[in-house]
Amino acid sequence: MDDFLPRVWEMLIGRDHGPLAFRFIAQPLMAAFLAVRAGMRDARAGRPPYGWAVTVDAAHRRELVRDGWKDIGRLFAIAVAMDLVYQLIVFHWIYPLQSLIVGATLAVPPYFLLRGLTNRLARSRIHAGSR
Questions:
Q1: Which of 52, 103, 108, 119 lies in disulfide reach of 79, CB 3.0 to 4.6 Å?
Q2: Region of 19 on the Ramachandran plot (φ > 0 left; ψ -120 to 50 alpha; else beta)
């Protein structure tokens, strides 16, 4: 058990090279694309920035999370599946928890941050154009 966490950490950080390393670029880019699309949709609808709304709007939090998950659920599944393939190629074994960590790291943070930022930028342009 003493070597478990260092081994997991070593396996996680060692994934930036070798087979399927392109996923570290492709998946955040896809999350960014989905976030920008959703942020523009939010701005046109007059909704508040996504991250802020999820954090402070307890009444609509479940609906907001469901909407976000609908956007990135497939991307998350692809990220997990690609990591499982990577594990089979490199480690000849599957570590499901590590795949979930990698999938969540590659898909969720870029989406969460960029959706709200896009909304703010688009709304400021909408307000500037209406003057």
A1: 103
A2: beta
The Cα 81–Cα 50 span in angstroms is 27
For the chain, domain boundaries: 4-12+19-129
Q: pLDDT (tens digit, 9 = 90+) per residue, 53-93?
A: 888 989 989 998 998 888 888 888 888 888 888 889 888 99
pLDDT for 75? 84
Backbone angles phi, psi at 64, to 5 degrees: -65, -45
Residue 129: predicted pLDDT:
64
| Phi, psi (deg, nearest 5) at residue 95 | -120, 90
Q: Which residues contact 42 (CB under 8 A, 6 or more apart)?
A: 48, 49, 50, 115, 118, 119
CA 91 to each of CA 27, 59, 75, 84, 102: distance values in angstroms, whole numbers, following the listed order: 22, 45, 23, 10, 15
pLDDT tens sequence across 26-54: 888 988 999 999 999 999 998 888 888 88
Helix H or strand E encompassing 92:
none
